[in-house]
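Attaching the record inline, Q. Sequence:
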Amino acid sequence: MTLSVPQLETKRLRLRGWYQADAVPLTKIFEHESARFIGGQGNYAKAWRVMAMHIGQWAIHGYGTWAVEDRNSGELIGFCGLWHPGDWPELELGWSLMPDRRGHGFATEAAIAGRAWTYDQLKASTLVSYIDPANTPSIRVAERLGCVRDGNVELSGSVSIVFRHPSPEAISS
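Structure, as predicted:
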């Protein structure tokens, strides 16, 4: 089976399908202590398995998470996109960046592109981001995206804040 993952481009970023070679740089995200917010720390083997799960979302649903690279350097700087395992209550838009690439607006830029694609191509009427209450950097990204708090949800044994994204109509107006 060959997957067709659409490529999105922003001013600074390219959101693309995954390459096997992406597992090596992706390991940096999972070695960092902030990986506790995305399933826990790990090594290359964990990064490879997570990458395979992201690819699997494309195979199962026809949507998923993109590898995010810097358009100028071609360097993998993180991932962003859609996540909807079987036990998730709603379609989620998530993001994670290399530790040295945080704080420059890349997550917001990637999420705006991913959200626009979701609303345009999937015709989704709503979208959420589930964020650990201690993950203040991601909470700030959600707020910059215009998300509003919409209660809490328990996922995989821990509580997350539900951040509801503006509707497609609210964004286009």
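The radius of gyration is 15 Å. The chain is about 35% helix and 25% strand.

More tomorrow.
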